[in-house]
UniProtKB/TrEMBL annotation:
Residues 172-310 form the Knr4/Smi1-like domain. This is Knr4/Smi1-like domain-containing protein. TPR repeats lie at residues 69-102. Pfam families: SMI1_KNR4, TPR_2. InterPro entries: Knr4/Smi1-like_dom (IPR018958), Knr4/Smi1-like_sf (IPR037883), TPR-like_helical_dom_sf (IPR011990), TPR_2 (IPR013105), TPR_rpt (IPR019734). Keywords: Repeat, TPR repeat. It comes from the Bacteria. SUPFAM superfamilies: SMI1/KNR4-like, TPR-like. The keyword Repeat applies.
Amino acid sequence: MRDDLLVQLQEWHEEDEFQEIVDAIQAIPVEERDYELVNHLGRALNNLEQYEEAVEQFLTVAKEGTGDPLWHYRIGLAYYYLEQYAHALQAFERADELDPEDEDTLEFLGWIRSKMEEPSESEHEVETDPEAVGEFRVPVDVVATFEAVPRPESGEFWNDSEHALEHYVSNPPSDGLIESVEEQLVFRLPASYIEMMKVHNGGIPYNRYFPVANTDTGATDYVEIEGILGIGREKPRTLAGVQGSWNLIEREGYPEIGVVIAVSPSESGVVMLDYRSFGNDGEPEVVYVKRENPKEIIPLAPNFETFIQGLMTPEV
């Protein structure tokens, strides 16, 4: 029965009957759709120019698609037509790594790099309109009300209070410890995060607010963090500590999309590295997940470094 369906789906694809594909697969309960069916659905949605819905479908099988060049190609295509070029570039670069010299992939890579080199309006208005990356947008009005965060190496980033030293700060991690923690978490940590932890392994920054635009009201909201989890096990607020990533996910029912790297005051929510787009070994995005049910996921930044650079503090 399933083999007959797959043959039919391919025939519809060749006949450009893409809506037939969507209708047939959506009639199947979600829990019964496997990796191959979801990819058929995502491809059909791409062909119908329903790119946001296609991305949503592809992300549900991101783990299975990690080593599949077609999965990266197809989600990259959706990101390209959504004009989320940074995401598209990463997807097509991964597709090229898995299937070198594929002509279609190389063609898209050329187009994307050309698009990313074009000057944008934000480059001419950087003082009043901070650059938006894909779906992640820093609100325009934060420049007037917030100070930019110092770089971590400046010595003015961390507030080494008694609480921070007791709960967060550990000695710089060894390569062996990093590898062990990554194995326990089942995710590869971003290089920028590891480099930061080798200088100062976790702690409480002076600037603890990240601005986000409320898409419903247009107002600026702020995600506040208490501190940033370091790489280790001994201190409570470390990735593998007793109040670390996996324990928070298991205890509070946060979605298993990646790694918790920061906690809001009173544990009202967490900041997570989100690996759904590019797999466990890819470059994760940064999102905020509310503790309340349903656990809403709010995009913050396309990567860890951008998140750190975007932290701010209210001026008195």
